[in-house]
C-alpha cells in the first residue's frame, strides 16, 4: 500500500511564535519595552545588565529582569544587587529560552506589567539556539566581547543577522587584547547592514550613558507609535 | 544544540495536525529548512529518530528540503538569492536588501501517511 501525502504547511515553532506575539501585545499594551540579550557564555551579559539596571533605577526608570541559565541562580543573585526585581529561569539543560518560559515566569513573578517601563531578558549564553525563538521582545541585542575575536559575526550568521543592536563589551580591554575595531565593525556591517553598534564597559561605565539614552528613545518611539496606531 | 527541542516541536505539530485521524501512521515528514534557520540538518535527523520513538511517527523518514535565502532588491527590482556571508546584500547590484523573504524557514510542508488497519491487512497474507 502506498502512503498518501497530506499537506500540513505549518511552522515547527508556530506555537512559540504565537505565544511570543501574545507576549508582545501584552508588553505593548502595558508600555513595557522588552529586550532579549543574547551572546556566547562569558561575554559579560550579566555584568553589563547589572550596571544598566542600576543606572536606570537611579534615573527613576522602572526595570525588571528575567535571567536564563542551564543551572544555578547565581546570575539572579548578582542582578538583584542592582535593587531591581529579578527572576531566574533555570532551564534544566535547555540551551535557550522559549516564549512559554517567559509567560509562566511572568505569571509566577507577581509583577504587574503596568508597573514596569523596561523588561530585560538575559538569554542562555549560546550564539546558536536562541536565534530560533522569538520571546516577544522589542529589541534583540547581541553582545560581542573584545576578547572573543572579531570574526564571531561571520561564524554565527543566524544570530547576528536576526539582531537589532550589537554591543561590543569589555571595551576597556580592547588595547590589551589588540582588538581590531575596524574588522569587528566590518563583520557586523556585513552580517546586518546598518546595525546599530555600542561600545561598553561594565567595569568603567564607558558607553552606558549613550546606551541608556538610546533605550529611553526607543521606548518613547514605541509608545508614540502605539498611541498613533 | 536545540535540535532535540525542534524535533519535539515538530512531532507535536504533526500530532496536532492529525489529531482527528488517529488511525494514520506517519511514514515520512517533508520539512523545509532555511539556510538561516539556525537549525543543523544532521543534528535534527539524529534527534528526530530518537524523539519519534514510541510516537506514531516512529520509523518515519525526515526528508529535508534546504531553502535558500531570498530577497527582493528594491534598488535593481530583482528577486535575488543572497549568499554567505552577505545575506542582506543583492548579489546582482550590491545594494542592501532590507528584508529576507525566505531563508529562515522551519516549516512542515507535508507528511506521508498510511492507515494502520490497511497496513495490518496487507501484512497478514505474507505472515
Provide an overview of this structure:
- The complex is a heterodimer of chains A (229) and B (127).
- Chain A has 229 residues and is α/β, with parallel strands linked by helices.
- Chain A has a single domain, classed as Rossmann fold (3-Layer(aba) Sandwich).
- Chain A is 39% helix and 21% strand.
- Chain A has a seven-stranded parallel β-sheet with strand order 4-3-5-2-6-7-8, with helices on both faces.
- The longest helix of chain A is centred in the last third of the chain and has 21 residues.
- Chain B is α+β, with helices and mostly antiparallel strands and 127 residues long.
- Chain B is built from three helices and six strands, in the order αβαβββββα.
- In chain B, α1 crosses α2.
- Chain B is elongated, with a radius of gyration of 19 Å.
- The interface between A and B is large, with 34 and 40 residues.
Q: Kindly report the spatial arrangement of strands forming the biggest sheet of chain A.
A: 4-3-5-2-6-7-8
Tell me the CATH architecture of the domain at 3-68 and 102-115 in chain B.
2-Layer Sandwich
Number of strands of chain A: 8
Order of helices and strands of chain A: EHEHEHEHEEHHEHEH
Compute the number of helices of chain A: 8
Secondary structure layout:
The complex is a heterodimer of chains A (229) and B (127).
Chain A: E1 4-11, H1 14-30, E2 33-38, H2 45-58, E3 63-69, H3 74-80, E4 86-90, H4 99-109, E5 118-122, E6 139-145, H5 152-155, H6 157-160, E7 165-169, H7 181-191, E8 196-199, H8 208-228
Helix pairs in contact in A: 2-3
Chain B: H1 3-17, E1 24-34, H2 41-52, E2 61-67, E3 70-72, E4 79-80, E5 100-102, E6 106-115, H3 116-123
Parallel strand pairs in B: 1-2
Antiparallel strand pairs in B: 1-6, 3-4, 3-5
Amino acid at each position: 500500500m502506498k502512503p498518501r501525502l497530506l499537506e500540513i504547511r505549518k511552522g515547527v515553532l508556530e506555537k512559540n511564535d504565537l505565544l511570543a506575539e501574545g507576549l508582545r501585545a501584552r508588553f505593548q499594551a502595558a508600555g513595557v519595552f522588552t529586550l532579549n540579550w543574547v551572546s556566547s557564555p562569558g561575554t559579560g551579559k550579566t555584568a553589563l545588565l547589572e550596571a544598566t539596571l542600576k543606572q536606570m533605577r537611579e534615573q527613576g526608570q522602572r526595570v525588571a529582569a528575567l535571567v536564563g541559565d542551564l543551572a544555578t541562580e547565581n546570575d539572579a543573585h548578582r542582578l538583584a544587587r542592582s535593587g531591581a526585581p529579578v527572576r531566574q529561569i533555570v532551564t534544566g539543560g535547555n540551551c535557550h529560552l522559549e516564549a512559554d518560559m517567559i509567560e509562566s515566569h511572568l505569571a509566577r513573578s507577581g509583577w504587574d506589567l503596568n508597573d514596569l517601563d523596561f523588561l530585560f531578558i538575559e538569554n542562555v549564553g549560546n550564539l546558536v539556539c536562541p536565534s530560533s525563538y522569538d520571546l516577544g521582545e522589542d529589541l534583540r541585542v547581541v553582545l560581542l566581547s573584545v576578547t572573543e575575536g572579531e570574526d564571531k559575526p561571520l561564524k554565527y550568521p543566524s544570530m547576528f543577522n536576526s539582531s537589532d543592536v550589537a554591543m561590543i563589551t569589555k571595551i576597556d580591554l580592547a588595547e590589551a587584547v589588540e582588538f581590531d575595531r575596524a574588522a569587528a565593525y566590518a563583520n557586523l556591517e556585513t552580517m546586518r547592514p546598518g546595525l546599530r553598534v555600542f561600545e561598553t564597559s561594565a567595569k568603567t561605565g564607558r558607553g552606558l550613558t549613550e546606551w541608556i539614552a538610546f533605550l529611553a528613545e526607543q521606548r518613547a518611539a514605541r509608545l508614540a507609535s502605539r498611541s498613533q496606531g | 544544540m536545540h535540535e532535540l527541542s525542534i524535533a519535539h516541536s515538530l512531532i507535536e505539530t504533526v500530532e496536532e495536525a492529525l489529531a482527528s485521524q488517529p488511525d494514520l501512521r506517519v511514514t515520512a515528514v517533508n520539512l523545509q529548512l532555511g539556510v538561516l534557520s539556525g537549525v543543523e540538518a544532521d543534528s535534527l535527523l539524529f534527534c528526530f529518530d530518537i524523539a519519534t520513538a514510541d510516537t506514531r511517527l516512529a520509523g518515519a523518514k525526515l526528508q529535508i528540503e534546504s531553502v535558500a535565502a531570498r530577497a527582493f532588491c528594491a534598488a535593481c527590482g530583482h528577486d535575488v538569492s543572497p549568499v554567505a556571508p552577505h545575506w542582506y546584500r543583492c548579489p546582482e547590484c550590491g545594494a542592501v536588501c532590507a528584508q529576507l523573504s525566505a531563508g529562515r524557514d522551519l516549516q512542515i510542508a507535508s507528511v506521508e501517511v498510511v492507515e494502520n488497519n490497511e497496513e495490518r491487512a496487507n501484512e497478514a497474507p505474507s505472515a
